[in-house]
Amino acid sequence: MMADQHGTHPAQALVPAPGTTSASSLGSAWSASSLSPALGSSLRELSSAFGLTYTIHSCSSFSSTYVPEHILIDDPKDQASRWSSDSNCPPQFIMLRLSRPSVVSAITFGKFDKTHVCNLKRFKIWVGHEPDRLIEVLDSGLINDTTKETFRLRHVIHGHFFPAQYVKIVPLQSWGPSFNFSIWFVALRGSDAEDIVQPALRWHQEFREREAVRLCMKHFRERNFTEVFESLEKKTKIQLEHPLLSAIHKCLVIKGDFEETETMIGQAVHDGLFDQWIDLQLPTPKWKALILPDDVPKDNVVNGSSQTPENTPGQVSPNDDSPEDQERRFPVVAQPNPNEEAPAIPNQEADRSASSDQASTRPLHNQSNQTTSPEFRNLNSLGPNRPSCRGGHQMVIDVSTQTIYMFGGWDGNRDLNDFWTYNIATNKWTLLSINTAMEGGPDPRSCHKMVLDTTYKLLFLLGRYLDRGLRDATSNVKSDFFMYDIATSRWTLITDDTSAHGGPSLIFDHQMCFDQKLRTIYVFGGSIVQLTEGAPLPSDKRCSGLYEYHVPTNTWHKRRDDSQNPNAMDNQLRARSSHSMLFHEGLRKLFVFGGHRRRYDHLNDFFSYSVDTDQVEIISSMGSLVHSTFPSVGHTQRATIDCQRNEIHVMTGLNKDKDPTERQGDGKVSNSFWVYSIPFNSWTCFYKNESVCSEYWSRMQNAQPRPRYAHQLVYDDVNKIHYMFGGNPGGKQGKEHKLRLGDFWSLSLLRPTRDQIQRVCQLAIRRVHFDELVHVNKMAALKYLQGPVSDVVDHSDPQEEAEMRLLASQLFLANHPSERPTTDSSSHTRSHKGRCELFEKLSKYFPEDMTHPRINLLDLIPYPMEYE
């Protein structure tokens, strides 16, 4: 496991001020997108890195006989075999010194054989060449259990390994808040091979030399020391920035040609040079109700359930457990009569309560008794124009036709198998089939998954939840696999049991992704439905491994089995259910986030799997970290991917953020939206709503969706819009857990557009031009303000309008008696300073690898510390 990091700007990392450099202040240097093929090969070698030897360099303190040398010995049975600080007041640390410079790729923490209050709930790790010049490479925490934990450390910067000789572990919080910190055992993994370490050391030294020269060049140019700047540039042959930036600087700062500067900036915008900056901006969420909660019928003709919860929104009862625990406590011992209403048992959803949205009493597989029920006959005669309330359904989107497809789900009483499309352009739902089983398609189900082949216009559907009372016959637990041809509107049963052809057994709460290039479906995880007789206890439930289905040849292949190794450092996959999985076509990787293996085993890792190289990369582990930095630990989140912007969106649902030893308390339903930047390896939250106040939602439910889980989310990556339907708000209808939602929302992620950024740049340029005109020709400045400046001001923006009025006031201040007459020298100095500041503002929109260093030379010079 490993915590999420940001990268570091090269000058910050390699020409640091005295002390340490925080990972939170780092830039893109840690990005793995720039790795060379040679380094990629070396990285694979490091995946099997060996143990590194170290000694104790220093520590902040130690308590009694708990000396720091104890962490060299792995003795989990000995309570005294640990280092303990003599205080929990920061700063506390222990510094390790490697026997020789090494690339440190992982760290393992051993633990006592019982849970302990002194275990580290949160800590940071720093590495570096010198003990007083370190870089943060990990911010994470330990689970308070007895299992060793291994964390991957950041060890690549700007496409090159970063060797270190010192490793500093900084405890920040123990599991017992009033207790001192303890570390039981530490092992380091990596490589000290000469052919890896020495080239990296040489590159970093050369890089530091080059960045030092660039910082000096930037300083001299800003101070208008032109001769010194040009001499240094000529002598070192080092380029300060991309030639385009140098041309803009010459045009703006040296010549003062503001019109030509606008032209050059406009061309840069048109060429997409500002797109990276735009993609990195925090999006502004804009919700729009396509079906308002008030528009959903109070008494749904299918489920007959009210839309007003009796519980406070967002709270899940302690009895609202995962299906395996519910089934153990409330077993279904006999098959119900499908023609009569069976008594409802407490909610058995995993997404509905802990992992999925499942049924409580359901007909046998391939039966279609529901189609002849009075409710369905009534629904058919009414000709519904929108889907009913539900959770645990499935949606996919065809962006090319602007169509959303939705199938099945659980309505609070029974599973559904109605099939709908939604036309985004016309804002219209169309019922394709009220019962797909009557047309050769799937029978009612929930907790299934569906993917779309956008080229051949084919839908594939796999999996379903089956009640334990119906798992007593082999014929019931077969894994059927369906395909729907959109062009011909026909369902095809590919096989009635994928396990008989090398595919997975019957599963639910799994994930599927479609590889358009290879026309391959990847299926990972999910709870395996097993026969009741001889089934394992709920705590020993089985999860499915990684499978692939090749559409052209109609063949299944098992790629990976489930790994029982919780550290997953040996390129293994830990199977799970109720997770998120996404496929990046360009990177050829599956990204997997969260999930759980059993009731209290909530996974919080985030990793990628290369479908071409079969390699697993642990990206981060959110374990015990501050929730403001990462998505909350949960297992009902929904995720989408934008391959153009290289970002992943995660919407949280039912969260279980607690110590696994804490078995009591309610699960909390809270929705927040996060963006994960793949190249920058950073999480950002741009929307959060955790309100549980009924009065609040009575006022706001038409403005934004109430928190929920068991909903479905799809993403239009062309127009950058999410669509969300249904779900479970966490309340209960009486004691039968029947409440489901039927509202439908769109969520736009608003970022600045190219035109907006160009206008902002134009306004900045013209304001500086106006400022210079004020001190030269007041009438010309006034006309320029009323014309070109006013033309690019957004007069609907109160702030810009107020700033416009402030500019006008400068015309009067320029003639104020207190204003000193300006000399040519002072005027030139003021103009040069204003233009340099403008150039600095404009350069921030360009990619970092094109610009001069973002930090300043003066920032690295400490203030004098002597006092008189």
How would you describe what is shown here?
The protein is of the alpha+beta class. 21% of the residues lie in helices and 28% in strands. It is built from 14 helices and 44 strands. A hairpin with a 4-residue loop joins strand 17 (403-410) and strand 18. The longest helix is centred in the first third of the chain and has 29 residues, at 194-222. The radius of gyration is 31 Å and the shape is globular. Residues 1-38, 299-382, 623-627 and 657-666 have low confidence and may be disordered.
Summarize the structure.
The protein has 868 residues and is of the alpha+beta class. It has 14 helices and 44 strands.
Query: Mean pLDDT, as a whole number?
Result: 81
Number of strands: 44
Q: Give the helix tally.
A: 14
Q: What portion of residues is helical?
A: 10-25%
Runs in which pLDDT lies below 50 for 5 or more consecutive residues are 1-38, 299-382, 623-627, 657-666
Helix/strand class: alpha+beta
- Give the terminus-to-terminus CA distance: 52 Å
Shape call: globular
The main β sheet shows up as:
9 strands, mixed
Question: How much beta, percentage-wise?
Answer: 25-35%
Rg from alpha-carbon coordinates: 31 Å
List key phrases describing it.
alpha+beta; nine-stranded mixed beta sheet
Write the layout of secondary structure elements.
Blueprint: H1 10-14, E1 19-21, H2 37-46, E2 50-52, E3 54-59, E4 83-84, E5 94-110, E6 120-130, E7 133-140, E8 149-152, E9 156-157, E10 160-161, E11 164-174, E12 182-183, E13 185-191, H3 194-222, H4 226-236, H5 243-254, H6 258-270, H7 275-279, E14 284-291, E15 315-316, H8 323-329, H9 374-382, E16 394-398, E17 403-410, E18 415-423, E19 428-433, E20 449-453, E21 458-462, E22 481-485, E23 490-495, E24 507-508, E25 511-515, E26 520-524, E27 527-528, E28 546-550, E29 555-560, E30 580-584, E31 589-593, E32 596-598, E33 601-602, E34 605-610, E35 616-621, E36 638-642, E37 647-651, E38 654-655, E39 667-669, E40 671-677, E41 682-689, H10 694-700, E42 712-716, E43 721-727, E44 741-750, H11 754-774, H12 778-791, H13 798-813, H14 824-843
Parallel strand pairs: 1-7
Antiparallel strand pairs: 2-13, 3-5, 4-12, 5-8, 5-11, 5-13, 6-7, 6-11, 9-10, 14-44, 15-39, 16-17, 17-18, 18-19, 20-21, 21-22, 22-23, 24-27, 25-26, 26-28, 28-29, 30-31, 31-34, 32-33, 34-35, 36-37, 37-40, 38-39, 40-41, 42-43, 43-44
Helix pairs in contact: 3-4, 5-14, 6-11, 11-12, 11-14, 12-13
